[in-house]
Amino acid sequence: MNNTSESTSPRITKVEALDLLKNADLLGLGMMADNMRKALHPEGDVSFIIDRNINYTNVCINQCRFCAFYRNLEDKDAYVLSRRVLYKKIRETIACGGTQILMQGGLHPELGLEYYTSLLKAIKSKFDIHIHALSPPEVTFIAEQAGLAIKDTLLVLQDAGLDSIPGGGAEILADRVRKQVSPKKIGSRQWLKVMEEAHGIGMQTTATMMFGSIERPEDIITHLDVLRKLQDKTGGFTAFIPWSFQPGNTELQGAGVRGPGLGVRGQEATGIEYLRILALSRVFLDNFPNIQASWVTQGLKMAQVALRFGANDFGSTMLEENVVAAAGVSNRATIQDIINAVRGAGFRPVQRDMHYRIINNAL
User: Fold this and answer.
1) What structural domains and CATH numbers belong to the chain?
2) Are 246 and 278 in contact (CB under 8 A)?
3) Which of 92, 106, 159, 175 sits a CA distance of 20 to 30 A from 126?
């Protein structure tokens, strides 16, 4: 399925994208992205979803160098959420008008397929809520533990109640980078394989990119290119979410150097860098219907600016967020804060579901 935009303009090449990333005038690039946003979303709406990030465990064997959230199994503050606590979080989400939970965790060596299927079935039996959960590294780990193929594992999880898959674990889909920042994590091909298999069984997913660790501009283009190629093939991605690496409390804090056009790695990316990469993403990913602003890492004001640099979605209300917070970043916002921010930027806020269907346009 080719999900390209209706624009008659030829798509930009990798070489052109790299030149834009390194050399383009920021406002000129932003205008290109804004024009594409207008063509794809002429109605002037900016969507968001009311949901909650629930990290069911912080135990993870991957021990990624960029992560401040993971714990080892023997650590005193390692945890697996009880059903009682998890249900309480879901009830609170629904009480706030939430329609979805985003459920991700570490790769816990003692949790197998039965744990996940039992949990998914229990949630579905008690709550009418969309379960957006289990990123490609988690799916791969579950499959390996169970001795099953990825497709078969996804079918079992889907039957148990898994509705869609988040784009976590992508970071930069260039193995040169992955071998340095997350050597124990799945490679780029495996991440893409999980997503392709999910799309093949009718399960939609999102895609992400974490920039600002040790990657070069060329790696960013590689990441965008493999996503565009897979989207050409399957059409299964609903949105792309680029967000900046938060170095606090991580092994990479203060490490590494970027290439031309970008700043020092291991330090938090600047707002200008964020806008440049966001705008390029909108221009290059012509077959992605939605680009999401990351107010969680950038703050509400920068997210407002992002709406003129290609973003058409304000993401999640994030009634709870733990991973970015572990790195010392704690941008918080109420549902009304998000509505006000969207209106303040000159757009109409609308509430959506994971499939980007509008469920409330009278905000």
Assistant:
1) 14-54+148-154+163-360 (3.20.20.70)
2) no
3) 106
